[in-house]
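Researcher: We plan to redesign the surface later, but first we want a full-length starting point. Tokens attached.
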């Protein structure tokens, strides 16, 4: 018997309560097709919510958005209605938010553009109360071609590398994936790359939390992800060509969400500030973190920031002036001020872990698809060499990280897709 369950819309909120015994799934279902393309889940505001995003092509009749949640015995538990909008002459984007799920529960879901024809039913398991695992990836940077020439899988495509990585993450029992950016390669946006990004079947079951990367900074990022608590003070303008991300939109794609007692904050470090323009971005990060903390006051023990351009790395971007501008304007001071525990980043396609004098862990993860691998480009006597260097490795194969959160302790394990352990860390919660 179902309890009263609330159903969320993206823009408004309704309650639909279906009596137990009604709503059994009988309608026809369709595997991914032109009705349902690039289906992806993002976290909702907390572990009882989940956001959905998908595309459809113009030849479908209806352009509405529905998600229905099925209980383990396949009774419709709730239906959420969302919104849709055209994203090109041939594509529509659909989004919806489901609220009121119970933690530690195995559901199924279906999506629909007309509430008549539904997709196949996909599994979705909510995070349990207590111990849980999530994965971290960086720079999957899907292309339409092969991996880097120096990858140990150089003859395979980035799509194959990424699919293997997602399969490993699924087999590790992660409940969702946190990304450090660069999901696709083409700066101007290429839908074929997004097709490859969302192709792995596991992504129909695991929310994927992106931090926007410099390769992602065009409107396709906004069309393909349904972010919780997005901090856009100005609406995104996709009506003209060129990057929609600029200093005028410094808080665009910053967002936050909480799973159990871990507050996650995604920050947008895709712009290329100089010394005189970086302050505005740091102010926007500060505002986002303050908003996230205020909205979740008393509900979190840990804070994890994920963003793209690592400030503690040794790869090809270690000397970049835009990253130095973020640091000089106070990016790392902000992490200290706000008591951030773990800062996850990418951009450099090499694994690096440092620990600063305050005990903050900075982890740079390498590519999860094998597109590019950068060797260390600075030496330990360089001014830019991170003072708190713990380890750096370049294995030239895709990698992923699994974080297990167990109350006041996290264990963080990074592996290559062939099973080699790259790094292991037990992280106790600091007394702040
Ligand atoms: Fe990248």
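Model: Full-length starting sequence:
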């Amino acid at each position: 018997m179902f309890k009263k369950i609330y159903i969320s819309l993206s823009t408004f909120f309704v309650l639909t309560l279906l009596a137990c015994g009604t709503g059994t799934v009988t309608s026809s279902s369709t595997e991914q097709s032109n009705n349902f393309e690039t289906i992806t889940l993002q976290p909702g505001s907390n572990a009882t919510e989940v956001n959905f995003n998908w595309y459809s092509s113009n030849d479908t009749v209806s352009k509405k958005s529905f998600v229905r949640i099925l209980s383990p015995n396949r009774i419709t538990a709730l239906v959420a209605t969302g919104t849709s909008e055209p994203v090109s002459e041939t594509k529509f984007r659909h989004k919806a938010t489901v609220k009121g799920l119970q933690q530690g529960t195995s559901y199924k879901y279906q999506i629909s553009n007309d509430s008549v024809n539904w997709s196949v039913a996909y599994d979705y398991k909510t995070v349990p109360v207590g111990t849980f695992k999530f994965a971290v990836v960086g720079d999957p940077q899907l292309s339409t071609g092969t991996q880097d020439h120096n990858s140990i899988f150089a003859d395979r495509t980035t799509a194959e590398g990424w699919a293997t990585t997602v399969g490993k993450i699924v087999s590790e029992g992660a409940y969702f994936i946190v990304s450090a950016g660069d999901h696709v390669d083409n700066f101007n946006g290429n839908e074929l790359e997004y097709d490859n990004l969302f192709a792995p079947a596991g992504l129909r079951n695991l929310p994927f939390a992106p931090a926007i990367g410099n390769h992602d900074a065009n409107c396709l990022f906004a069309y393909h992800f349904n972010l919780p608590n997005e901090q856009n003070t100005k609406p995104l303008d996709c009506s003209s060509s060129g990057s929609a991300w600029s200093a005028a939109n410094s808080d665009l794609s910053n967002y936050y969400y909480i799973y159990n007692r871990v507050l996650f904050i995604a920050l947008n470090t895709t712009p290329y500030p100089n010394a005189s323009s970086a302050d505005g971005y740091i102010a926007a990060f500060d505002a986002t973190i303050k908003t996230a903390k205020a909205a979740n006051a008393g509900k979190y023990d840990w804070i994890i920031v994920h963003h793209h351009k690592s400030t503690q790395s040794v790869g090809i971007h270690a000397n970049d002036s835009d990253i130095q501008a973020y640091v000089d304007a106070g990016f790392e001071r902000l992490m200290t001020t706000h008591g951030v525990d773990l800062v996850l980043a990418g951009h450099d396609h090499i694994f690096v872990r440092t620990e600063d004098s305050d005990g903050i862990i900075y982890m740079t993860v390498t590519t999860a698809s094998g597109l590019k691998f950068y060797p260390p480009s600075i030496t330990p006597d360089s001014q830019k060499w991170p003072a708190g260097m713990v380890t750096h490795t370049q294995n030239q194969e895709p990698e992923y990280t699994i974080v297990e959160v167990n109350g006041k302790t996290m264990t963080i394990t990074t592996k290559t897709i062939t099973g080699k352990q790259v790094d292991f860390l037990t992280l106790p919660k600091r007394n702040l």
